[in-house]
Amino acid sequence: MPTPIWTPTEARVKASVLTDFLRWMAAEKGVDLADSLALHAWSVAERGAFWAALWDYFGVIGDKGHGGVGGDSGPWIVGEGMLEEHFFPGARLNFAQNLLELAGAEDSATALVFRGEDKAEMRWTWGELRAQVSRISQALAAAGVGLGDRVAGLLPNRPESIAAMLATASLGATWSSASPDFGTRAVLDRFAQIEPKVLITTDGYWYNGKRIAVGPKLAEVLPGLPTVQKTVLIDYLGTANSVAAELEGAVSLADFTENFPAGEIAYAPVDFDHPLYILFSSGTTGAPKCIVHRTGGVLLQHLKELALHGDVKPGDRLFYFTTLGWMMWNWLASGLARGATVMLYDGSPFAPGARVLWDYAEAERFTHFGTSAKYIDTLRKSGYRPGDVLALSELRTMFSTGSPLLTHGFDYVYDAVKADLHLASISGGTDIVSCFVGGDPTRPVYSGEIQGPGFGLDVDVWSAPNTPAGPGEKGELVCANAFPVMPLGFWGDDDGSRYHAAYFELFDGVWCQGDYAERTETGGFIIHGRSDATLNPGGVRIGTAEIYAEVEKFPEVRDSVVIGHETAGDQRVVLFVAMAEGNTLDDDLIGRIKAAIRKGSSPRHVPARILAVPDIPHTKSGKISELAVKDVVHGRAVKNRGALHNPEALDAFPVL
């Protein structure tokens, strides 16, 4: 058994929300559960009772629906099989009402804090947030937005963006968003499919110190969105009115809401399964899938993850570095339901320097800091050590997702950020706008591992249908039971065939996430990369994460991507590296990289070729785009370059 890199103190375990939930379960439900492991086992065996208990514990605002105390086959779940089961029949609730009212936050308390690089700062109280939601909600209703209509947001991560989402949800309409750095084609590939009635956007944004106007892009986008009846511009650069004047049917947010004084918000109750969000797959292998998410499922799942897995409490200060093009923005916004102050940031996390997010964390006394594994590795390579120079005494938890967090990432966080910290590596996806596996504030953290499965989710690793893999054996990450935050399906997929093919085809009737993973002897999980990006040299399946784990140890290498190159009826491993400034790829470095991979992984992991390129392509959410590189190397067209943050990086990759 490995040695933990961090173990919570007894006092911290006792003070956790998870422990409070266990006490509450014993007192209120008569269910005695010794610890989080017992809770997970019970939550899978008695799913109906578990999800109903969450509703009661958090005090969800709404009508819970039919029945009383129900077990797995009780009244809280109807139907049979993953694709047919539904939770909370007859329930009625409103998502915005729960985010704005559930925690009972006083109007004078701080709800949102915003920084935009070094260009802007804002701070909204709960009263100001509720007032903005009231005004935008009334204006949207006057513009004809109602139950089931779509509102699209092409927006930076500002307070007005949160308010616009909540206003949309208050009406029972469906919200969908993207980041304003998306290209015209990428925007149309997403929003044109869902036919929004209103587009809420911005006049521009700042990134890496540059002022970027959005007006020219809007002039290209709007003709491709014929269903948009009103375009609303949030003023970031001070040009919203002038940009609106150039666009038909456009108006600034100030003008859009000027005739609607703040008042009580009219929350429209909707069914538990009513469409709340439409999120999009990355779109790097074709047109993005439009994934439709359920109102009640998102609320319960986010409450569970934030509170039980993340230990977010009322008054905490919750930060996640994200854009509106990544599901972590939706997850972050749900922190309001816990009564947390949600900390927003827009722009480059390294402008004007590596300190920018950490100066923000110190000044605003973050309790939770969320980011990507890529950011942690980039920070590590920069040499910056925030814990050495800043006071981070209130920081309790750090989240990491987007790609596997490798052992040197864990080591860096505990050495350079804070020794007494719950580092929660989490993994899920846009598919469920949440996580399958994640943190547990009451159990030890082991370097390189995700601590365990989500409560209520029968998560496992299978090597074949109905064949769980043993500890240390790699296979497909699956969830073998239905859960409330499963998507309703894909927009426009009327017969459900695309939805079924995406998740239920490999193992008939069981959710297959498409992650190549293993369970560990500690009960945790390791994600080795996406299944569709795994390597298969000599017919032996290996994960890309194992190679990245070794390459990222080299300070000479800024970034890298590894792919399988099909040749002569077999596959060979090819590694591309982008060098750190002042370094070159020579025979000595190639030899040292190969030796490290051979020693740290296996001879089969050693690349047949290592080639230098100027940059590595990433998706908008920061993930390495292995599939796009694989297409280029094999001489195939990349189906959706607009889904990439830096598509120009592909131009330097050779056809092999």
Low-pLDDT stretches: 68-73
Amino- and carboxy-terminal Cα gap: 43 Å
- Find the structural class using helix and strand composition: alpha/beta
CATH topology-level name of the largest domain:
Rossmann fold
Main sheet, how many strands, which sense, barrel? 7 strands, mixed
Computed CA radius of gyration, to the nearest angstrom: 24 Å
What is the helix tally? 21
CATH superfamily of the largest domain: ANL, N-terminal domain
Helix content: 25-40%
Report the β-strand fraction as a percent range: 15-25%
Q: How would you write the strand order of the largest sheet? A: 6-5-18-17-19-20-21
Q: How many DSSP E strands?
A: 33
Q: Can you tell me the CATH architecture of the largest domain?
A: 3-Layer(aba) Sandwich
Number of spatially distinct domains: 3
Mean model confidence by pLDDT: 92
Name of the CATH class of the largest domain: Alpha Beta
Shape: globular
